[in-house]
Amino acid sequence: MQQAIMQQALEANLMNIATTIEDQLDDEMHRMENLTEDDLDRMRERRLEALKKQQRKRQEWMRRGHGEYREVDEREFFNEMKKTERMVCHFFRNNWPCQVMDKHLAILAAKHVETKFVKVNAEKAPFLTERLKVWMLPTLALIKNEKTTDYVVGFDDLGGVDDFKTETLAMRLVAGGLIFEQDEYKPAGAGSAAPQRSIRSSSDIRNYKKTDSDEDSDFD
Length: 220
Hints:
five-stranded mixed sheet; 45% helix
């Protein structure tokens, strides 16, 4: 008896939701049907202005070195970072894991011009590696508005394998707020989960002691 009552309540609730959605659609259709020519012109103007603004922003990003994946030295790093909203810096050496990371970052750099992608040879940048406490390669420093906000250390956040997909790294950067999300990066099903944001995650982290500067490096 109680189960039947609960079923009836559930059906009534679903019906109310469906009715609400239908009413909202009717209201939107009614509004669209009653738009005047002036209304349509204003909508077109706003859309055109938004597109122009987006194009200007894209041109500015490209002028500042976005859209490509480049190696910079320790001195150039600071100039690249200045007044940059989002930057991914790969600390690397000439080995296989770093070459794997290079391949994926080059793809993402071309696709996500909203973010600057650079790499620094860790063996030639002792000041930076010490300041950012880079202790494993590859390491990605995720920098927003000139502050390191997150790190991707090794491949642990990417499934712990070297044959991870570019989309896996993309979802990790989305989780860190470094690139804009795209539909292709969303998990395919309920059982799929995007990589989680984590500071200094690694299976060998037991030898590392985090300090306050890890989450708020301003490179002053």
